[in-house]
Predict the structure.
Amino acid sequence: MSEARMPGVGPYSGAPVDPWGAAESAGTVVLGVGSPLMGDDGIGVAVVEMLRERWDGDDGLALLDGGTWGMQVLPAIEDAERLLIVDAIQAGARPGTVVRLDGEEIPRHLRMKMSPHQIELGEVLAVAELRGHFPGQAVALGIQPARIELHEGFSDVVDASVPALLGAIEAQLAVWGHRASGASDHEPAGQSETEVAHA
């Protein structure tokens, strides 16, 4: 597979957005997680960066690069009314399939411990749940990875599914009452040839 890169996304800077300041007044938090150094595992971080072009003007929405921060994102998650996690999701589907998890499916699925950052994220969500601060509405959207290993860039099949993932994310944000600042050239959710699977 070629070393496909996301259009408009440069090398990982290693400096995620501060989750406390960015999410302080936001009702909805979009959290991109994963490691850009591990091939398809970095898709969540890259996609959230792409969303900034059209969604940064919404004061009720925080777009956060969670990277592999683990427990440090807990305050942002607990303060959110609505949480949208963007990540590579292992669902046993065909590589490149867009995958959706809802509500309680998210922490339960992450207990499968697909990768180190998901172990940490699963623990963060479990703590929020235990403390009674798990967001009232939570969705995880991602892509079934083809390759998670020490490698920069995404597999061809995952890269090709990015427009469908962006369309699914934007459709969910619209359901939650958010409106983008510009026209979208992403495929509307449900109208792509890419399958959307519920894990």
